[in-house]
Automatic annotation (TrEMBL):
Allows the formation of correctly charged Asn-tRNA(Asn) or Gln-tRNA(Gln) through the transamidation of misacylated Asp-tRNA(Asn) or Glu-tRNA(Gln) in organisms which lack either or both of asparaginyl-tRNA or glutaminyl-tRNA synthetases. The reaction takes place in the presence of glutamine and ATP through an activated phospho-Asp-tRNA(Asn) or phospho-Glu-tRNA(Gln). Heterotrimer of A, B and C subunits. Its EC number is 6.3.5.-. HAMAP family: GatC. It catalyses: L-glutamyl-tRNA(Gln) + L-glutamine + ATP + H2O = L-glutaminyl-tRNA(Gln) + L-glutamate + ADP + phosphate + H(+); L-aspartyl-tRNA(Asn) + L-glutamine + ATP + H2O = L-asparaginyl-tRNA(Asn) + L-glutamate + ADP + phosphate + 2 H(+). PANTHER family: GLUTAMYL-TRNA(GLN) AMIDOTRANSFERASE SUBUNIT C, MITOCHONDRIAL. SUPFAM superfamilies: Glu-tRNAGln amidotransferase C subunit. This is Aspartyl/glutamyl-tRNA(Asn/Gln) amidotransferase subunit C. It comes from the Bacteria. NCBIfam families: gatC. The keyword Protein biosynthesis applies.
């Protein structure tokens, strides 16, 4: 894949980056170099390579996956301008 001047202009516009007309060719060249590096990565054989979480072997800390209500209903509703029967009360918006 090759990036031309027009594509570089469009990418700069989408990224909200102001690029002068004279710099568009250089920007297109930089994009092409980046895409070349990405294509090189596609050539690497990663069959059988486990994904890494860290450079040092370690097990992630995990908690028990349990569904709870949090136990903070009173604290949360104390901040509400209007609460009724354990729920937030909001004005009616649909008639």
């Amino acid at each position: 894949m090759s990036i031309d001047r027009e594509t570089a202009r469009r990418v700069a516009k989408l990224a909200r980056i102001k690029v002068e007309e004279g710099d568009l060719d250089a920007l297109a060249g930089e994009f092409n170099a980046i895409l070349g590096f990405v294509e090189q990565l596609n050539e690497v054989d990663v069959e059988g390579v486990e994904p890494m979480v860290s450079v040092t072997p370690m097990r992630l800390k995990r908690r028990q996956d349990a569904v709870t209500d949090g136990g903070y209903q009173e604290k949360i509703l104390s901040n509400a301008p209007d609460a009724r029967e354990g729920f937030f009360a909001v004005p009616k918006v649909v008639e």
